[in-house]
């Protein structure tokens, strides 16, 4: 769970305390603030940390694979955007595989192992679309 606290700048306080801060809180922990205040400026995190960690590990794996496939440094990978959410929106693994293959048409190394590994890793993942503002 995540809550936002804004510290008011008082004379003698450091300049860093005047900006909004986000504090992560484990389930069951309490904050020093009364519940009424917490609702005034709260930040809502739509996704749990476990899902975000899975996504981060997947993105790191994709990056490592692309560096090897394109035989280059990370900064030199051709403009390529593999949108995991777009893949999760597709109906079948065949469609997903075709989309990734289409994105990687300029790769001269075989991409089949990468594509099958990617499809295996995204199975069961949740889509992380941008949270909608109310």
- The order of strands across the largest sheet is 1-2
Main sheet summary:
2 strands, antiparallel
Distance between the termini: 19 Å
Helical residues, percent: 40-55%
How does this model look, in words?
The chain is mainly alpha-helical and 134 residues long. Helices cover 40% and strands 7% of the residues. It is built from five helices and two strands. The chain is globular and about 50 Å long. The two termini are 19 Å apart. Residues 1-17 have low confidence and may be disordered. Residues 1-42 are annotated as: Disordered. This is Protein phosphatase 1 regulatory inhibitor subunit 14B. Residues 1-20 have a biased composition (Low complexity).
Summary, kept brief:
40% of the residues lie in helices and 7% in strands. By secondary structure, it is mainly α. It has a domain of 74 residues.
């Amino acid at each position: 769970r995540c809550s936002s606290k804004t510290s008011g700048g008082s004379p003698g306080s450091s300049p860093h305390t005047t900006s909004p801060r986000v504090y992560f809180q484990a389930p069951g922990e309490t904050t020093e603030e009364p519940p009424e205040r917490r609702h005034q400026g709260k930040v809502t995190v739509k996704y749990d940390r476990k899902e975000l960690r899975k996504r981060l590990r997947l993105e790191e794996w994709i990056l490592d694979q692309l560096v090897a496939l394109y035989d280059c440094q990370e900064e030199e990978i051709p403009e390529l955007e593999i949108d995991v959410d777009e893949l999760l929106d597709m109906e079948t693994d065949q469609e997903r595989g075709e989309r990734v293959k289409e994105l990687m048409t300029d790769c001269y190394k075989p991409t089949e192992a990468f594509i099958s590994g990617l499809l295996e890793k995204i199975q069961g993942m949740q889509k992380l679309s941008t949270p909608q503002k109310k």
